Structures are given as C-alpha cells and as structure tokens.
Amino acid sequence: MRTFAGLTASALSALVLVGSITLLPAVAGAADVERTKQGKELAFNRKKGNCLACHMIADGVSPGDLGPPLVAMKGRFPDRAKLRAQLENPMVNNPDTAMPPFGKFKILSDDEINKIIDYLYTL
Asked: How far is CA 95 from CA 2, 31, 113, 123, in A?
C-alpha cells in the first residue's frame, strides 16, 4: 500500500510539474507573438528586410534562390549572437556575399534585427 501511495504521489507531482511547464509559454506568449509577427512583416517588407528577394521562406510569395532557404533556423544558428552577426554584417564571414549588411549600413535598427531573429527562430 505504501508503494502505491508513493508512486501515486510521484506521478501526481510529475503531472503538476509538466503542466506548469506547458503554461510558461502562454504567460509570455502575447508579447512574443507580437514581436514574431512584426519580425515576419519586416522580413517580407521589400523596403526593409526583403528576405524573400534572395531566400525561400515557407509561406513567402515569389521567393528568390540566391541565398539558402530559411528553414530550421534555430538548429542552424543555435547561438543567437551568430545569427545576429550574420544579419548585421555578413561580409565578416564572407567578403564576397551579396547579402547586404543590414546593421552596418543601418538598413535595419537593432530592434528590427531582433524582431526578425525572433521570427526566423520560428522557422
């Protein structure tokens, strides 16, 4: 009987823990969703990020094929700072790149770059 009670208590504790973890994104979700939406708008905006000019993005219309497809970005750039550096000045890693240095040339602000990264991490 003791073993059954101990197992039940352990199982209940585990359920509470898992349940509370799944609630965490919902608490911070509204602001994150808005930033991600703004990041997508910037990425698709032909006067700002214009990522679709060179990259294929899942729900983008008329994507380019000069750059690699923007998929699995969190897996490809687990270090957010490296993705940020790529957007700020890709010429550091590849002097012959056609990608514009969005940060260096002030095409995008720091906040806009962060919003685009938030969006890219959803891909």
From this structure: 69, 36, 21, 26
Q: Is residue 11 part of a domain?
A: no
Q: What is the predicted pLDDT for the residue at 71?
A: 94
d(CA 94, CA 38): 28
Show the tokens assigned to 59: 């729900």
Evaluate the CA torsion angle 18, 20, 23, 24 in order and state its sign: negative
| CATH, residue 88 | 1.10.760.10
Six token digits for residue 66: 């000069």
Distance CA 39, CA 54 (A): 17
Decide if 105 is inside a domain. yes
Q: What is the mean pLDDT of residues 88-109?
A: 95
Per the domain annotation, does 49 fall within a domain?
Answer: yes
E strands present in 14-113? none
Give me the pLDDT at residue 73, please: 95
In a domain, 3, yes or no: no
User: Domain limits at 103?
Assistant: 29-120
